[in-house]
Amino acid sequence: MRHHFVFSLLAVSFAGLAQLAAQTSAPNLNAPLPNASELWQRALANERKLAAEQERYECRVTDTIVQTDSRGNPKKTTTVVKDQFFVNGIVIDRTLQKNGKDLTPEQTKKEDERVMKETLKYSNQAAAKKEEDQQNQQTEDFMEAMMLANGHRQLVNGRSILYYDIMPNPHFEAKNLNQRIARVLDGKVSIDEQSGEVIDLNVKSVADLKIGGGLLANVHKGLWFHVHNHSEPDDVWLTDLAEGSGDARAALFFHPYFRFREVTDNCHLYTATAIQVGEPKVVKTN
């Protein structure tokens, strides 16, 4: 969820690995394992290759955010249903419902205006590339601060899948927020070897982290995140599940105890061509 600052960083960081090309030859299970940099470069190449295909997809996203007390008992639950699509590789969401209720006409108008603004912005390739570069830099920041250890390879449905333990790099000095978060994460990841696609990521914070002496943010031990991606028939990979729970706070505006679940499904292909002439206007119908 984009207002959960920790998950946003993780989601952005690993979303850059969310594209894949088909594997065309039998993998050599005894070959040396690729390093993290090699996998990252494969993911970037596949992202560029399949960007146009990804834009043909529109999906339904359901976010459920539960604020809890310190014992995990729910205090407030918020559910948001959205449509999701891509413009030059950038994800854009359009909210449809909140807590089971459709948006009011006024809310719908504001949401449509926001979505149009973002769509036009990222239709400009320079703006989309700037955003993509920022996301890629966040991913690289994470990768520098973490280690892939105890790797092994398995053949799954004809594809070579790599399995690693994720742990902090003890010899790395964190230089920014992303890297400080990465330095307290421990978990497991599975990766499609051919593409560098992250299939399943499951991490948990193993130590408390205070940022700005705790005034800017606190991340407590046990904060948990899980992300799963799947392949569509045309080899475009999309995230179908993101979830997590824990105790974290950003400034004074984020409830410290939470759990969330984001499910993406009902993805379908569509083809559309749009040309803007002049400024966008709201058309009223009777």
What does this structure look like?
- The chain is an alpha+beta fold and 286 residues long.
- The protein has one domain.
- The chain is 27% helix and 40% strand.
- The protein has five helices and 13 strands.
- Strands 1, 2, 3, 4, 5, 6, 7, 8, 9, 10, 11, 12 and 13 form a 13-stranded antiparallel β-sheet that branches.
- The radius of gyration is 20 Å and the shape is globular.
- The two termini are 36 Å apart.
- The model is unreliable at 1-25 (pLDDT under 50).
Keyphrases for this structure?
286 residues; alpha+beta; 13-stranded antiparallel β-sheet; 5 helices; 13 strands; 27% helix; 40% strand; globular; disordered N terminus
Number of helices: 5
Structural shape: globular
Category from helices, strands and their pairing? alpha+beta
The overall pLDDT, averaged over residues, is 81
- What ranges have pLDDT less than 50 throughout 5 or more consecutive residues? 1-25
Please outline the major beta sheet: 13 strands, antiparallel
Distance between the termini: 36 Å
Percent in helix: 25-40%
Number of strands: 13
The gyration radius over C-alpha positions equals: 20 Å
How much of the sequence lies in strands comes to: 35-45%
Q: SSE order, as H and E?
A: HHEEEEHHEEHEEEEEEE
Number of domains: 1
Structure, briefly:
The chain has 286 residues and is an alpha+beta fold. It has 5 helices and 13 strands.
Topology (elements, then pairings):
Layout: H1 5-15, H2 36-54, E1 57-68, E2 74-87, E3 90-98, E4 101-102, H3 105-123, H4 125-145, E5 146-156, E6 159-168, H5 177-182, E7 185-192, E8 198-205, E9 209-211, E10 217-219, E11 224-231, E12 237-250, E13 257-269
Antiparallel strand pairs: 1-2, 1-13, 2-3, 3-4, 5-6, 6-7, 7-8, 8-11, 9-10, 10-12, 11-12, 12-13
Helix pairs in contact: 1-4
